[in-house]
Each structure stands twice: as C-alpha cells, then as structure tokens.
Specification:
Blueprint lengths: L1 H43 L15 H10 L3 H6 L2 H39 L2 H6 L23 E4 L2 E4 L2 H7 L3 H6 L4 E2 L3 H9 L26 H44 L9 E8 L7 E9 L1
Antiparallel strand pairs: 1-2, 1-3, 4-5
Amino acid sequence: MKPRLLLIALLVSLLVPVFTNGQQLLNNQSTVSERDRLIYSLKYAQTEPDTFEFNYQKSPGLAFAMSAVLPGSGEFYAGAKYRAAAFIGVEIVSWIVYFNRRNTGQKIEDDYIKWANSHWSAYNWWANSLPYPGIVGLSDSSENFGSHLIYFEYEGKEYKAEKTYLNNNLPGWDSYLLNGDLIPVKTRDYYENIGKYDQFASGWDDFDEITANIDTSNVKNSPHRSKYVYKRYDSNQALKMATNFATVIMFNHLISAFHAQIVAKQYRSPEEKDFSWQVGLVTDYTQKNPIRGMTLSLAF
C-alpha cells in the first residue's frame, strides 16, 4: 500500500509544476493575443481618408461657346440669370432695330433710284450744260474742269464721261448720247455724284428753274435735285444706323462670350447650395479579408 501512495505522490509532484507552467503559458499567450487584437482594432478598424467631392462646377468653355452663339445663354447656364436676361435683351432689341433700319434704308434707296431714273438723264446733263461751260456738264481735261467722273457704256464697252477722252476714243459720241445708245453706268458712285456735286446739276429735268442766277460759285439745287438729295440722305442715315446696330450685335456676342466664361469660373447664384459626398472603406487587417465594409456620407 505504501509503495502505491509513494508513487502517486511522486507523480503529483512532477505534474503540478508542469500543469502550472502550462496554464501560465496559455494565460500569457492569451494575454498577448488580446493586446495585439486590440492594437490592430484601434489602428486599422477605421474609415480610410479616400473621398470624392462634386460641387456642380460649370464648364467655362461650354459657357463661352453658348454665349458666342446666343448672347446670354452661357450666363443662364452658369446661373447668372439676370445678366443673361440683359444680354438677351440687348440682342433682341439690336436685331429689331437692325432689320427695321435696314429695310427702311433699302426702301428709301429704291425710291431715290426710281426718282433719279425718272428725272436725271445723261443727255440733259450734256445738252443743258452747253450755255454754261466750266460750270456744269461733262469733265474736260483740256479746260481743267470737273473733278468727278461717271462712266458711259456703248456696245458693251465702258468710256469715261470726259470730253477729250470721248473725242479721242469714241468719235460721234454726242450723237450716240442723243439717240440713247450711249448710256450711263449706274453704279453707287453714279447715284452719289448726280445729287452731291454741282457739276451734274444740268442733268435734272427742272434745271431751267435755277438758271437765272447761275454762276461758278452759286449753283442752287433744283426742286427735283433737292428731293433726291433728301431721300438719299434719309436712306444713308437709316442704313448707317443698321450698320451701327450690326456692330452692337457683334460686340454683344463677344462680350457675352467672355463674360460667360468668367461667370462659369467665379459666379455662384444665391440659391445654389454646395453638395458633396464622401465614400470610405472600413478595414481590419487582423482578418483574412481586411475590407470589412463601406461608409457613405452626404453634405448639403
């Protein structure tokens, strides 16, 4: 009996230190594992700082192109609605005035051309001038008269309305003028000259009404010439205004285009609010798959 008890006591004395040390080792390993797990959790289980933000910015290039085509449209796109209305208003008014003045000027131009064709003739210009050489009539280089020229046409060829030139290049020109074969070339300069310069006063069919007191320094306008001059002046003024508004239209396009580009870069309308969103990843590198989830946040 005693030998058995002795053997048991010996085994217990050997196993107790081993068990105690083993349990202590297990406890130590468990403590290290929990600490490391906590460190890993604090270090890696957090949202990554990767974010994406969108603030609804406008494209300056698109705004420029839009306003270059239609003034104000680029400003409207960029959010500057009142400025867009101003540019569009200028555009509309300018086009209305342009078409009105252009059509009016062309209508008056048609009227004064008809008036000139009815009341001024090249034959009268030459025939009525014969009693008043050096005052009215065709230019004449031999007498140093006439600083302005119109042109005649005969059988498809043009000739200067200048006496010495015609005598040398078209003998018998006066007879051609009488029977209507020699006709004036009716260019814009022609219609300007016959009303503007006294040299052509004898071509008007009421020239005889002003011949009583005619001299080199006093060639009055006949009634028909006066009416023509006023018509032409009114036409030119209307067409000039149309041209001015065409210039306004061109600059309105350019200014609006550059302005829209600036507005798209800088302007923020009062009612526009910032909007952004952020996306992040939740990770835990103590796990076999470190990506544990995703976060999404919105800001208005």
